[in-house]
Specification:
This protein is α/β, with parallel strands linked by helices. Helix content is 35%, strand content 20%. Strand 4 and strand 5 form a beta hairpin.
């Protein structure tokens, strides 16, 4: 099955254009995206739906957050690279922001221990290089999905990024056959208390691939008062799609919700 890194810029642009034809216009209030870790032929349409909504003029930096599948010495490693390269070219790393995060808390480190070309980062960059003209990027890996680390990541992002022109992408997947788990998540997300979410994270019961990334995104959304929208209604019949693909944005009466659009 084709991987997004095998697509040409023209193929991706065509997918974005088709998705935009179904929209009323760009959403200038989006702050977060929830995106599949791997972008493939079967979920490409769904991913285009997410990325087609953002207004590229609103962002100068994109942060890609993803979970690493093993525990590393550094809990929140950030690659030391000066740029990342895909078949569509190079994207500069936001070194100043990387340094700011390292100063913020001891759990953030510049480290290449978990770095590889298989990271979701490179999947997301392929989409970003088509929909955005000029931006810098920062990659953050969650190498320990314990509640303390996930909460620390979320609260640092919420504090440091609140006033910046940045888009944050949280990579995570929940298969479409896990609808009961999705319904359970809805009630947790709508709760004023994050205790149940933290218990869910710590219990190991979740079938989310990248559960730490997902919960960090939910916490940031709550702290910023964003409305959360997942695009599962139109794609639920396709087995490779993701119940957690969507976005979080400010609305006129922003409140934390979890709904399908």
């Amino acid at each position: 099955m084709m991987n997004i890194t095998e697509y040409s810029k023209e193929q991706i642009q065509q997918g974005i254009d088709r998705a935009r034809e179904q929209l009323d216009g760009l959403n200038e209030h989006i702050r977060l995206l929830f995106a599949p870790k791997q972008i493939k032929e079967n979920n490409f349409e769904q991913v285009c739906d997410i990325y087609s909504r953002i207004d590229p003029d609103n962002y100068d930096t994109v942060i890609v957050v993803e979970s690493y599948d093993k525990v590393l010495d550094k809990k929140l490693p950030m690659s030391s690279h000066n740029y990342f390269e895909t078949p569509l070219g190079k994207v500069k790393v936001n070194d100043a922001l990387r340094n700011d995060l390292c100063d913020e808390d001891d759990d953030f480190f510049v480290s290449d221990e978990g770095f590889s070309k298989d990271m979701s980062l490179f999947q997301q960059l392929m989409m970003l290089q088509v929909v955005m003209n000029d931006f810098q990027v920062l990659s953050i890996q969650i190498a320990d999905e314990g509640p303390y680390i996930v909460k620390e990541l979320a609260y640092v992002l919420e504090e440091v990024m609140a006033s910046r022109n940045a888009l944050i992408i949280f990579s995570c997947d929940l298969p479409v056959d896990r609808k009961k788990e999705y319904e359970r998540l809805k009630s947790m997300v709508q709760s004023e208390d994050n205790t149940e979410l933290m218990h869910f994270l710590n219990s190991g019961e979740s079938h989310i691939d990248g559960v730490g990334s997902f919960i960090a995104g939910i916490i940031v959304s709550k702290e910023w008062g964003l409305s959360i929208h997942f695009l599962n209604e139109d794609y639920v019949q396709k087995p490779d799609n993701n119940l957690l693909s969507g976005y979080a944005s400010y609305t006129q009466n922003s409140k934390v919700i979890l709904e399908s659009v």
